[in-house]
C-alpha cells in the first residue's frame, strides 16, 4: 500500500448494517479517508471497533474506520480544529423527513459546490430537499437493498441530474464514487446514468410488499399464499408503474409480473417496515408512499390502493405514538 | 289472558341476544305461538330456560318460548308429527352467505305463498336469495341494531317490495308483524314502507366504523381521535352514499356528518366485527362490504376505500382460516 493519503475525504452518517459495510468498502478501496458519525454507538465502537462477518469482506474483528466522531458538527473540523472539506457525504440513516430531515443532518459537513451527497436510502423524492439546499452540488443515490440478500440483485447507484450542475459533472462524480465502491470489494455495484427509473423499480417492492406486510402483520410468503399478491400487491404495482410513467420514468411492462412472482411462496421473510412496526420504531412511510402519492396527485394518476394503505398505516403510526406517550407518563 | 290460541305461528331461528329478546317480545304480544330453533344451546335452554334481564322486559328467570326444537326440520312438524305452516319465520343468525345461506336454513319451515320471512340481520342484498327461492312470499328486514344501546336509535322494520307480490300485501304483512312486536313491548320499533333506505343508512355505520375498527384493531374512540374518521370513514361513507343513490335509495346529504360525529371521542366501544376478529369468529364481511361493492360495480360507482378495506379484511379471513387449520392438525 502506498503511503500517499487517499485522494478523497468521505463523511459517513448512519451506523446500521448498511453504513458499517459502506465504511469498510470505502476504506478498503484505498481511495477514501472515512469519518464515521455515530451517535448511540459512539462509545462502544470508538473503544472496541466493529466485529464484521461478511461474504464479501470476510471476518474483521475490532475494525475501525479512519475517524469516529459523535456528530456532524464534530466531523466538520479535524482533530486540530481546522475545517474539513468533504468530497463525499454518504447518508445511511433511515428516511424520516418529518423526524430527521437529511438536509439538517448533513448541513455541518457540506461544502457548497464541492461535496457530493450519496443517499443510500429508501423512497422517492428524497433528493429534492438536498438539491434545494445545495443547488450546485451533485446528489446521487442507491437503495439499501435489503432484498439483495434474497434475490441477488445488483445494487444500482447513480446521479440525480438537476439544473444546478452539468449532467456530465453529476455523472462523473457518481462514476468516481462507484469506481471507489467497486475497488473496495463491493461485488455487485453498477453505475446507472439516471437513477430515477431504478428508484421507481425498487418502489415496486417497497411500496407494496413492504407496506402491506406491515399493515397486515403478514410475511412475504403469507401475503403470496393468501392471494393478497393478486388482490392488493399487483394492483398497487400498476399504480406505481403508472405514476413513474407519468413522471417521465417509464418501466418495462414485464417488470410487474417479475417483481410479483420472483420469490417463493414459502418464504417467511419479514420486510423492514413490518419489523419497524412490530418493534415500535418509526416507519419510512412518507418517502415510500407519501411522496409517490404527492406525485400521483400532481400528475392526476389514480391510486386507490396505495392511498388507502397509506391512510391506514398513518393510523398505525398514531397507535405507535399513543403507546409511546402512554409509556412515558 | 284469553284461552284462545294466538293467531300467528312464528318460527324463530338464532339464539343470540337478538333472537332471545325477539322470542320474548313475540310471545308477550299474545299474538304468536313461538317455536325457537336452537342448536348448541338446545340442551341447556330446553331444561333451564333463559334468564333475561332487560330494560324493556324486566327480570325473567327460566323463561321459555312456546316450543324449543333442535332443528328447522324438527320445527316443520308438531309434537304429533303433523306438518306446521308458519305465518312468520324470524331469522336472527349471523349473515354468512358462504358458510350458512339463510335460504337453506329456513327451507324446512317455509310454506310457499304463505310464510313471511323477517331477517333481523346486517347487510345489503340479504333478501335477494329469499325472493329468488320463494318469489310469492313476503320478505321484510330489520337490522340487529347493536348501536341502539349507545345512541338510542329507533329500530326500523319494513318490507322488501318485489315483483312476486303486490306491494300492499308485503306492506300489510310487515305491518301486522310490527304491530305484534310493539304489542309485545318493543318500545322503539317503527314500520317503514320501503326498508331499503334504512338498510343503506345502517350501512353507513356497519360499512365504515365496523370494518375499519376491525381491520385496525381500534375502538370507536381511537378511530375518531386518530383522525381516521376524516381520512377513512367519511370518504367511505360518501362511497356508500353514492352507491345507495345510484341504486335508487338516496339518503339526505346531512346524514354523513351526523353519522360521523354522533358518538363521543372517548367512547371505547368495540364494534361487532372487531370482536369477531379478536375471537376468531367469522365476520359478516360479504353482506356488509361484498354485496355493496357488487352493486357499485354494476352501477359504475367509484369505491376506492371500501374496495381496499374489503380486500384487506379478506386477508384477515385467510389468517383466521390458517389459524383454525393449524389448530385442528
Describe this structure in words.
The structure is a homodimer of 329-residue chains. Chain A has 329 residues and is α/β, with parallel strands linked by helices. Helices cover 47% and strands 14% of the residues of chain A. Chain A has an eight-stranded mixed sheet, with helices on both faces. The radius of gyration of chain A is 20 Å and the shape is globular. The mean pLDDT of chain A is 93. At the A-B interface, helix 10 and helix 14 of A face helix 10 and helix 14 of B.
What is the strand content of chain A? Answer: 5-15%
User: What integer value in Å does the Rg of chain A equal?
Assistant: 20 Å
The major sheet of chain A is characterized as:
8 strands, mixed
Placed side by side, the strands forming the largest sheet of chain A appear as 5-2-1-6-7-8-9-10
What is the subunit arrangement here? homodimer
SSE arrangement of chain A, N to C: EHEHEEEHEHEHEHEHEHHHHHHH
* Helical content band of chain A: 40-55%
Shape of chain A: globular
Tally of strands of chain A: 10
Spatial separation of the terminal alpha carbons of chain A: 57 Å
Low-confidence sequence ranges of chain A: none
Q: If interface size is counted as residues with C-beta under 8 Å from the partner's C-beta, which chains form the largest one?
A: A-B, 23 and 23 residues
Indicate the structural class of chain A. alpha/beta
**Total helix count of chain A?**
14
Give the overall average pLDDT of chain A. Answer: 93
